[in-house]
Structures are given as C-alpha cells and as structure tokens.
Amino acid sequence: MQINERVECLRNQMKKAGLDAFLINGTDPHQSEYVSPRWHTRRWISGFTGSAGTVIVTQKEALIWVDSRYFVQCADQIKDTVFEMRKIDGPEASSPIDFLQKNFSKNKKVGIAEETLMLSEKEEYQKKGINIQATEDLLDYIWKDRPQMPDYPVEKMDDDLCGLSASQKIEEIRKLGHQNNEDYHLISSLTDIAWILNLRGADVEDTPVFLSYLLIGPGDVKLFTPKSRFKNVKPDCYSVHSYEDVTVELSKLSNVTVRLDPEKTNMKLASALEKANGVKISRGRDFSSDLKAVKNAAELEGMRVAHILDGVAMVNFLSQVKSGEYDFTEVTIAEALAQERELEEDYLGPSFSTIAGFGAHGAVVHYSATEETDIPITGNGLLVLDSGGQYSCGTTDITRTILFGKATREQKEDYTLVLKGHLALSSQIFPKGTSGHQLDVLAHQFLWQRGMNYFHGTGHGVGFRLSVHEGPQRISAKAEKGEPVALKPGMVLSDEPGIYKEGKHGIRIENLVAVTEAQTTEFGQFYTFEVLTCCPYERGLIVKSMLTADEKRMIDEYHQWVRDMLIDMVDEEAKSYLIEATKPL
C-alpha cells in the first residue's frame, strides 16, 4: 500500500471503532525514542523516518508534528501525500494537544493504542478536555506484514566494568523505595532495565536494549521478557517470565504500594494495577534513572577509554579525507568512517545512524543520506558529520564540521560563532544545584548577538554502553517539566551548538563532557566539565581575530591534549595530519 491508501484504511478502521481521530506517537510500550521495527508506526503510516514526531489522522486531515531537527526532512518525505507538516518549535510553533483541544470537543473520541499511551500523557489530554481513548492498535488490522516482537539474545556485562553488580543496584533501589514506604518498583524503561541488571541486548538498532519489564519486590525480582534470550546467560538475582505475563502479575498484587514513572508506564499496565486489590500508586521518576545518570568511577573510566578509541578512528579517517586521494559521496564517507571504527576490536557498532550532510544538506539538522538523496562531496563546501560508536566500555557521540575546498567568509564566521558558544559552555564553572536549562544561554549567546539561532537542544545525556540519548539531565532552552534536574558529578552530556541556513550550509560542533568537581569556596561547591571527546576542530574554519585570548588558549590546550593522547595510537600516515591539525593557533 502507498501512504495515502494506508491513511484511508486507517480511517475505515476508525469508523468501525467510533473514533473521530487517531493519534500515533511512534513510540513503543516503553516510551522509547528509538524503537524496534514492530513500532515503526509513524514511519509506516506517514513515510517520515525521523526519531520524533506525532501523527494525527482525522476523517478529513492527516497531520504530522515535528521539531526543528526535522522540518526540511519531513517536508521532503511527506511530499505528494495527504500529510501536512506542523512545527512544534520555532516562529510557527503549534502542538498536537492545541489542535485537538481546538477542533475536538469532549463528545468526540480520540483513539490511541493503549500500549503506547503513557499514564502522564493520558492525564494531560484529559486536563485539556480531550476525550482520549486507550484502544487496541488499529494498525494491526491494516499492517499485514507488521514485524513481530524481537527476542534477540542478551549479553551479561562484567560487574567490574559496570562498577556495581545487579544485586547491589537492586538493593539501592529497594533502600530508596523503603524511605518512601514503597514496596514494589515497576520499571518500563528499557535502558533502566538493561543498566540495573548489567545486561545488554539487540532489539533496537544501535541501542543495546531488549524489550522487557522489571518488577522489583521486597523479596524477589521478576523480569518479563522472552526466556529464549537466556541461552548463554544464567539469570542470577531475578527470575524470567514471559513478556505478556506482566499484566497478570500486576493484577495479582494486593495491598502494596507500587512506584512507577507515569512518563514511561503505559495504560495497559496502569489498567492492570487498577484491577489489583488495594494497590496504591506512588509516582516518580525511576530511581534507576537518576542512579545511572551519575556514572560511577568504573563507568566514567570506560567512557574515557571509549572516547580515546573513537578519537583514533576519527583521526585516521580525517587524515584520509584531508589527503584528497579519495572521492566521497555522503553515503561512502559515512561508510569510510564506519570501516575505521570497525578496526578496533572493542567496537560493537554505531550508537545511531550517521548524519553526513554536505552543502545545503548540512542545513537539515538530522539529515539521512539515501541512494536517492546522496550527492558527491566535491568542490567547495561544508560537511556536517555527526556519528558515534558503541564500544565494550562506553558510548560516544561526536560532530565535526569538515571543510572541503575553500570556505567563504560567512562560513568561517558562522563556524567561529558556534565554536565560541561550544567553548563557553564546556569551560563554564557553575555552582552545585545548577540545571542544564540555566547554562543553555552560554552556547547561544554569540549567535544571538548576530541575530541567529538554533532550535534543537544544546545537550543531551548519554548512557554507558546504552542509549546515545538518556536523561534526565539535559541542556536546553526549554524549561523542564516539574523540578529542574541539577547537574551532578559523573553525568555525561553533549555540548553541541549549531547554525543551519536552509539552502546554504549547516554547522555543528559536538563533544561529550562529564560533570566534575571544580572547587569549593566560602560560597559553596562548584562544578565544571571534563571534555571526553578527543578529536581536532576544523582549523580552516576558525577566524582567529574573532577569538579572545582565553578562547585561543582553550583551543590550543585542547589540541595539545588530543595530540598527546593520540599521537602514538593513530596510523603512521595519520600522524602528519594530527600534528598539523593540532598546531597552536
């Protein structure tokens, strides 16, 4: 079926179900950002392949809301279909909730698959007077070759590499729950479950998680996932039950208090708990989310090692690119970088799909080159290369903007403004209790002074050999819901300002940084950032006259560190590039 046919088939199912609108959020039963093929629902119904967005289909309209990362991509992918794009941020911002509130009164029914509707979402819709209905998944009736739920094997990570055993993590969660008079912990987040049990999976591309639920009780721990995963791993402090049995087990609970995260618990689970006898719900972020956000000493050391290994691959790759001996397209240059990473025995695979956008494609924030869109990298232009790796000891995410040929004055100035914001953030010293939202202006300031801006977040949390996007910490212009998340030593985040000029060029510079202690004074404890990413900036794009003495010093010190760390590890033919790329300004 073509996109328009799929929409018509969905509308027919909506009529049968008595629904006026149907909402598709593209997530799975665990509120995951990246999902296994079974839950590529947004992609299947609309053709849009980005990792975030909300679809609403009515009998008259087919709409999709996306953020600024995907404006250009979405508009291109839904072209010549019945879908219309709406913008979540920027000057023309709107929201799916506002649309439903304005166009659908209480007597109109809005459906959504119950396993993809989170408890907090349902309540938000209801507060706005929207009659949201948690229904069966209507796509099951029309998506004839819909993929089955995956059941790939799990792998046990060494406790020494993780810093703590699964038993120790579970006891810490129980201890925190006991302080709140909570008996059980229902955990739906896939990254949390993988972290708690020191297990990794392969159900989601580039993110080593496995479809599961975890129920931690006072005396036992139950993991709900296919038992076939455990052919090579022996469960130790937990028992394994089928994925579907989670609702049965929840409905059996009696006169206990269950802690759950309403942002990640779907209505299928919530309904099962409502049926249980005398069960009280305690709401809050999973304790494990905060615990895993603060990397312990072993995890931090693993992340450092992963970034050095990634730096070797990046420098070897960049030396090839800068040699001018190879002809690349957007697709083949991404493949060349992947081949360099694969030479390292600890490399496990990418942490996300590489973004390689040349020229005007660089202005598409999350551009994804395909056979149809692939272009040769020739002549003068900028390449935005955003990539990352999963290593046995950690996760990386790096963006470098690479110059080909000669740069224009505008390109150099734009790059230098982005670099200044990037440096201002990573070098900032800030008091204990500061949130990422409070620091975000540091990265934007130089662009704002020129009347320019970017609309994506400046920094996201990164997992330990887990998801490249992990909260709760972040650096963003958007205020956080509820209590702001204070940055703490051990948290790893990205520092990635950018500028995107449609039809011209894009620029983004990204390092990963770890929060670390800076100093203690009579005014209290202060923190700063340790830079983890180990790779030169693009010297040919730096306008030295736009930099202060401190900024030049920061760049020189960073480049000296990069050279010292990598010079004995890179290929012999890459050393001359590394020395040249890290020369003092």
Describe this structure in words.
The protein contains 18 helices and 28 strands. By secondary structure, it is an alpha+beta fold. The strands form 8 sheets. A 6-stranded mixed beta sheet has the order 4-3-2-1-5-6. The chain has a 6-stranded mixed beta sheet with strand order 12-11-10-8-13-14. Helix 13 (297-323) packs across helix 18 (575-581). The mean pLDDT is 95.
Number of β-strand runs? 28
Strand arrangement within the widest β-sheet reads: 4-3-2-1-5-6
Sum up the overall morphology in one term.
globular
Helix content: 25-40%
Beta-strand content bin: 15-25%
How confident overall, as mean pLDDT? Answer: 95
- The end-to-end span amounts to 57 Å
Low-pLDDT segments: none
Helix/sheet category: alpha+beta
Care to give the gist of this entry?
33% of the residues lie in helices and 21% in strands. By secondary structure, the protein is an alpha+beta fold.
Characteristic key phrases:
6-stranded mixed β-sheet; alpha+beta; 18 helices; 585 residues
Topology:
Elements: H1 3-17, E1 21-24, H2 41-46, E2 54-58, E3 62-66, H3 71-77, E4 83-87, H4 96-103, E5 109-113, H5 119-127, E6 131-135, H6 139-142, E7 155-156, H7 159-162, H8 166-179, E8 184-187, H9 190-197, E9 199-200, E10 213-216, E11 221-224, E12 239-241, H10 246-252, E13 257-260, H11 267-275, E14 280-283, H12 287-293, H13 297-323, H14 330-342, E15 347-350, E16 355-358, E17 381-387, E18 389-391, E19 394-395, E20 398-404, H15 409-426, E21 430-431, H16 436-448, E22 459-460, E23 474-475, E24 492-495, E25 498-501, E26 505-508, E27 511-521, E28 524-531, H17 549-566, H18 575-581
Parallel strand pairs: 1-5, 3-4, 5-6, 8-13, 11-12, 13-14
Antiparallel strand pairs: 1-2, 2-3, 7-9, 8-10, 10-11, 15-18, 16-17, 17-20, 18-19, 21-28, 22-23, 24-27, 25-26, 27-28
